[in-house]
């Protein structure tokens, strides 16, 4: 990087492909990626280059490359630009960068999948993202294993079915003697208000079969808040769950072969 900056500052100059390489890497870093590698080579034709740079997520890397190209185009004198904007178009770099960062955040793995990928990299196990969500392949050929979030081919189907059912999970934990909040299923704000008054405020409302905290409302203390929470929850499911509110912290724990592998503290907002 020092040599790159020196060539720019001292008039020695460098290839535009080299500039694009560094800008694409820097944009990814601004979006939260830990990437540093890049190489640029000439093709023998003036102004045509082979540019290679690393990425953590392919589509984010491609988007960073496109934004780097667009930015460089706008910084060049108009007679040197190979791509010109129409009269009704404008280029707002701050807005484009915000869009790239938001896109990168949407493409990030969840904490559980990210911890599995990190562990694979530490063991030099190759991995490949197979879709836009959390389906990941570890290894190749007959040794490959596929993981969807934290579900693998070794995960028992019945365990997944039970843990995806909030009512059944609540019942099993209660039967085992574990402390659980009072819970009931509701389908209307009127019914939710009636149950909340019987349970006692504050309460929690969440979609019956939701996940990742979507549609969850905490610390509800009056009828108006319950009506808003029900509207939010029923956007994600036909039935909602109302529970007594228990203060504390929310942690997501990843257990592999009976051993705790990773813990993520979930913070609202």
From TrEMBL:
Coiled coil: none annotated. Residues 170-248 form the ATP-grasp domain. SUPFAM superfamilies: Glutathione synthetase ATP-binding domain-like (SSF56059). GO terms for molecular function: ATP binding; metal ion binding; ribosomal S6-glutamic acid ligase activity. It holds the Pfam family ATP-grasp_5. Transmembrane segments: none annotated. GO terms for cellular component: cytoplasm. InterPro entries: ATP-grasp, ATP_grasp_subdomain_1, Cyanophycin_syn_N. Signal peptide: none annotated. One of its GO terms (biological process) is SOS response. This is ATP-grasp domain-containing protein. It comes from marine metagenome. The lineage of its organism: unclassified sequences, metagenomes, ecological metagenomes.
